[in-house]
Write a structure and sequence with these properties.
Blueprint (H helix, E strand, L loop, with lengths): L1 H16 L2 H12 L7 E8 L4 E9 L4 E4 L6 E3 L5 H9 L3 E3 L10 H4 L6 E11 L2 E11 L9 H9 L1 H13 L9 H4 L7 E3 L8 H31 L3 H28 L3 E3 L5 E3 L1 H10 L2 H6 L3 E6 L4 E6 L1 H17 L6 E9 L4 E8 L6 H4 L11 H7 L5 H11 L5 E5 L3 E9 L1 E7 L11 E4 L6 H12 L7 E4 L8 E5 L5 H8 L4 E6 L16 E3 L5 H8 L5 E6 L3 H11 L4 E6 L2 H13 L6 E4 L8 H14 L6 E4 L8 H4 L4 E2 L6 H14 L1
Parallel strand pairs: 11-13, 18-19, 18-20, 20-21, 21-22, 23-24, 23-25, 25-26, 26-27
Antiparallel strand pairs: 1-2, 1-7, 2-3, 2-4, 5-6, 6-7, 8-9, 10-12, 12-17, 13-14, 14-16, 15-16
Helix pairs in contact: 1-2, 8-9, 12-15, 20-21
Length: 679
């Protein structure tokens, strides 16, 4: 904060003096202390050539600041490599505190000046989903600087307007050894604010305790993340992989949470420029909610996750703060709810106000009126007995109340002793795509049976509510304990699964969805492996909708040997309601395409990388185009994702369109819209 304020003053002075050499000296002086780094580099992305060009290099030890006008340091982004390649593809900031031992590290990309690196922080510069460049900040092994923190990452993010202006200058200037002019460097938009939440903590021993806690928690969290990543690569079951992925994200998120605890203990945290991003609220919230599903199973808690189907497909908000609030509130509800009780996470949408209402309600121990007043104070819990029995520091609600306020709402509470509690709030959001994720059902000529032994239980009624909200008439949905021969769709709970039901589902005489009573309890039954399965205690609206929806989902095949590319494309297509298959081998992809055509279930779109092992993507598509002609098949809509500007004319004719790296959501999803218009 102090550094950026000084930078403003320096540039203002230089503007009046019109002295670029002075600016260069002062900028060197400021960079010497900026975010405590030994090395700072600025890379500008050339979208035409698909390369990152280094344009500024600062070395703290040598007190050297160089503006690079030629392309002496060029990194090809046709096939991005290293940590910088990962940041390029994801357009997300990253910290590598042990960079030399990181599996993503590639020296030719991440250490172009051959320094003895210790840690590195990378920040992409993005405007309107377009990557402009990347700032890299590094510490060296013999330096006295510490590892990077999330707070420093936030400080760097807040300073991006300065770097954006610098990039604009460097991209448009002629080859010259001169320093940038002061006019171009003025960071008009850089600002920092400090907001306070909770009460002052003056006990030094308390601060020391939390400092140690942050360090102690991060170490096992990093190990947990590594093991989960290994497990994720080995799993083939899609549902298991989803849960491991969610768990991995939670492990990574622990570092941020512990930092927040320490900041709150110090009675302040930096609220820099809003870290807003575009999210699909349905996917975003359900992923967070599902991370608690296994824990709910331990206490046999009945966990209901409801996200209104009419919520917009995409909107923009500070996702990090909302994630912290949800984790704290659901975690609190779990902690204070006894075995076999209920927890309800409910998300509704107010179209008139463009606001989202979030509620976490439990049937737990409740809080009396007098103790409710204490809950939003730092380090306070309802009673000393509560702390003894349930543990915790009492910080979660203080942090949550502050973040909800930052999001534009107010965290509120309704509670009654021995009955339960509800924490709720409403926040305004910026709508990006007003269409809901789920299109309303248009074919209502169906008879849906929710088959269960427990017809009066809450969960079958909960599923019925979802179906009604998706647009099915109430009279078309029956909760029963016997199968109806006239049923077109059956949602069958585990206790009612029979050989007859399985046979009907496998023969497609009915559309069948199986509901586990316990998470993954049906996993080992091979005879049902091809049938859709969901579970109690998870977000199951996707599975319900897929079972009853009559429209044809767009079938997509993604072929790329880069797992990051595959993950990004999958994430971007999540809100488009498509059926996605992925493959990392072009030869194997060819088999998948031919098999699908023989089974009358051809793919509609293929996203294909050129640079593949065994055979190239171009060779694979050439062979499949010949196969299509031979069997008089409708040509698959082929999308090149290689990002290679040197692609030859013969190759261009194979593809229908091209999507460049790093991927943009709009470009990726426009492919789906274009293909659907051809159907």
């Amino acid at each position: 904060m102090k550094v950026v304020e000084e930078l403003k003053k320096v540039i203002d002075n230089v503007q009046s003096e019109k002295c670029d050499n002075l600016l260069n000296d002062k900028l060197t002086e400021i960079l010497n202390n900026f975010v405590q780094s030994d090395i700072i580099s600025l890379f500008v992305y050339d979208d035409e050539k698909k390369v990152l060009n280094e344009k500024m290099y600062y070395n703290r030890e040598q007190q050297s600041l160089k503006y690079i006008r030629d392309d002496s340091t060029t990194l090809s982004m046709i096939e991005p490599k290293g940590c910088i390649g990962t940041v390029f593809l994801t357009k997300s900031a990253a910290i590598y505190n042990y960079i030399l031992s990181d599996k993503e590290y590639v020296e030719a990309y991440d250490n172009v000046h051959e320094n003895k690196l210790k840690a590195q922080m990378l920040m992409p510069i993005v405007e309107n989903d377009t990557l402009l460049g990347i700032v890299t900040m590094s510490t060296v092994i013999k330096g006295s600087l510490q590892r990077y923190t999330q707070k420093e990452l936030a400080q760097l993010k807040a300073s991006l307007p300065y770097y954006i202006r610098l990039i604009g200058l460097l991209k448009n200037s002629e080859v010259s050894g001169d320093a940038p002019s002061s006019d171009a460097l003025l960071p008009h938009d850089v600002s920092f604010e400090t907001s306070k939440h909770g009460e002052t903590v003056t006990d030094d021993s308390m601060l020391l305790f939390f400092s140690n806690t942050v360090h102690d928690i991060r170490t096992p969290a990093n190990s947990l993340y590594g093991f989960l990543e290994l497990l994720e690569d080995k799993l083939e079951d899609k549902r298991l992989k989803e849960f491991v992925t969610n768990a991995k994200e939670s492990a990574a998120f622990i570092n941020t949470l512990t930092t927040s605890i320490l900041d709150t203990a110090k009675n302040k945290y930096q609220s820099v420029q809003s870290a807003s991003e575009i999210v699909c609220p349905t996917n975003f919230i359900s992923d967070i909610a599902n991370t608690f599903s296994a824990k709910m199973l331990e206490k046999q808690i009945h966990y209901f996750i409801y996200i209104s189907p009419n919520i917009p497909k995409e909107f923009k908000l500070d996702s990090m703060k909302l994630q912290r609030v949800l984790i704290n509130l659901i975690g609190n509800a779990y902690k204070f709810t006894p075995n076999k009780k209920e927890i309800h996470l409910t998300i509704t949408w107010n179209e008139e106000k463009n606001s989202m209402h979030i509620s976490v309600r439990d049937t737990g121990i409740g809080i009396d009126e007098e103790n409710q007043k204490k809950l939003f104070k730092a380090f306070a819990q309802a009673t000393d007995d509560t702390h003894e029995q349930y543990g915790g520091t009492g910080l979660g609600l203080t942090i949550s109340a502050g973040y909800v306020a930052d999001l534009g709402g107010e965290l509120k509470l309704k509670s009654k002793l021995d009955v339960g509690s509800e924490f709720y709030f409403e926040i305004p959001v910026e709508v990006v795509d007003a269409e809901p994720k789920y299109a309303p059902f248009y074919n209502l000529e169906k008879k849906i049976v929710i088959l269960t032994e427990y017809t009066k239980a809450k969960y079958p009624a909960f599923i019925r509510k979802y179906l009604i909200d998706f647009g099915m008439p109430e009279e078309k949905i029956v909760i029963a304990n016997t199968h109806d021969e006239n049923a077109t769709h059956v949602i069958c709970f585990e206790e009612k699964i029979t050989e007859e039901i399985i046979a009907l589902g496998n023969s497609n005489k009915i559309k069948l969805l199986l509901v586990e009573q316990v998470l993954f309890s049906l996993l080992k039954q091979k005879e049902i492996s091809s049938l859709p399965i969901t579970s109690k205690n998870v977000y199951n609206a996707d599975a319900i909708y897929s079972t009853v929806y009559s429209g044809k989902k767009t079938k997509v095949l993604i072929v790329d040997d880069n797992k990051i590319n595959i993950s990004l494309l999958e994430a971007m297509l999540e809100t488009s309601y498509v059926d996605v298959t992925t493959c990392e081998d072009a030869k194997e992809a060819l088999k998948i395409l031919k098999k699908a055509s023989k089974n009358n279930s051809s793919y509609d779109i293929i996203y294909l990388d050129k640079h593949m092992p065994v055979i190239s993507g171009t060779e694979m598509l050439t062979e499949f185009r010949a196969y299509e002609k031979k069997h008089d098949l409708k040509p698959i809509y082929a999308v090149s994702i290689s990002g290679d500007p040197q692609i030859i004319e013969e190759e261009k004719e194979l593809f229908d369109t091209f999507v460049s790296k790093p991927f943009k959501k709009e470009e990726v999803r426009n492919v789906i819209s274009t293909q659907r218009s051809r159907l």
